[in-house]
Design goal:
- By secondary structure, the chain is α/β, with parallel strands linked by helices.
- The chain has two domains: about 240 residues, TIM Barrel, CATH 3.20.20; about 30 residues, no CATH class.
- It is built from twelve helices and eight strands.
- The protein has an eight-stranded parallel barrel, surrounded by seven helices.
- Helix 6 packs across helix 7, helix 7 packs parallel to helix 9 and helix 9 runs parallel beside helix 10.
- About 40% of the residues are buried.
- The chain binds 3-methyl-2-oxobutanoic acid.
Length: about 280
């Protein structure tokens, strides 16, 4: 990253939709991660993450469910409040969970509004292309920043029957390009592209004015996002190749806890110095 690139996010006290667009326009890559609690949200914010997503991956990595479908709007609101309360710099975005925006446009808007009123989040994210265009138009039209999410959409995983990459055929690729353009037109301020070929990530990024945020979508997107417990090696149940491991926290924690248990059992903890 050169000096000009480093400056945009660093020079604002709070990252907003405008900062995100300026980053795309100037070629500064947007760094995004997920958080669900106070401790991680603070660490991520202090480390310079631009967007902190309270993802519905909460369902997998926090609640232990096998899909994102079970997490509720109330649970998303609970975690988002905790994250928003501690984050000072990053833009906090919340996923609208499954069944909170699919029934009617009005219900989607009411739920997005509830998230904004109750959590101090700075925007919401929903999955889908053309089929959610009216929802995006309403939510954005009423002044709520909204991010789209296309490609692999975890809320539809049961329909697709697996986590294979999307957009690998010409027909699917064209449909995704069309979806991205429709979401931009509807008022999305960014679009997450999940698990699609790098070349398609590049094509979509070049066709859009707004930024793309890739997860398994190659190096040409305007930003990148990973699920934090995946990249820290804390959640080991699932390891797609797009996850780069920056730490092995599960191993570190397990080693530390085993040592603690052994020390307690042998009397090595606490010592006199650790006592009053
Ligand atoms: O829920 C989530 O964490 C997400 C990211 C994978 C983009 O949607």
């Amino acid at each position: 990253m050169n000096d000009t690139r480093a400056s945009i996010s660093a020079r604002v006290s709070r990252v907003t939709t405008r900062t995100i667009q300026e980053m795309k326009d100037s070629g500064e890559t947007i760094a995004c991660l997920t958080a669900y609690d106070f401790l991680f949200a603070r660490l991520l914010d202090e480390a310079g993450v631009d967007i902190i997503l309270v993802g519905d991956s909460l369902s997998n990595v926090f609640q232990g469910n096998s899909t994102t479908l079970p997490v509720t709007l109330d649970e998303m609101i609970y975690h988002t409040k905790i994250v928003s309360n501690i984050v000072r710099h990053a833009m906090v975005i919340t996923d609208l969970p499954f069944m909170s925006y699919q029934v009617t446009v009005e219900e989607a808007f009411r739920n997005a509004g509830r998230v904004m009123k109750e959590t101090n989040a700075l925007g919401v994210k929903i999955e889908g292309g053309e089929r959610v265009a009216k929802v995006v138009e309403k939510i954005s039209g009423e002044g709520i920043p909204i991010i789209g999410h296309i490609g692999l959409m975890p809320q539809s995983i049961l329909k697709y029957g697996g986590y294979r990459p999307r957009g690998t055929s010409e027909e699917e690729a064209q449909a995704l390009i069309r979806d991205a353009l429709i979401l931009e037109e509807a008022g999305a301020f960014a679009i997450v592209l999940e698990k699609i070929p790098a070349s398609l990530g590049r094509t979509i990024t070049e066709k859009l004015r707004i930024p793309t945020i890739g997860i398994g979508a190659g190096p040409y997107c305007s930003g990148q996002i990973l699920v934090t417990p995946d990249m820290l090696g804390l959640f080991e149940d699932f390891r797609p190749r797009f996850v780069r491991r920056y730490a092995n926290l599960a191993e570190d924690i397990s080693r530390a806890v085993r040592q603690y248990v052994a020390d307690v059992k042998t009397g090595a903890f606490p010592t006199q110095a650790e006592s009053y």
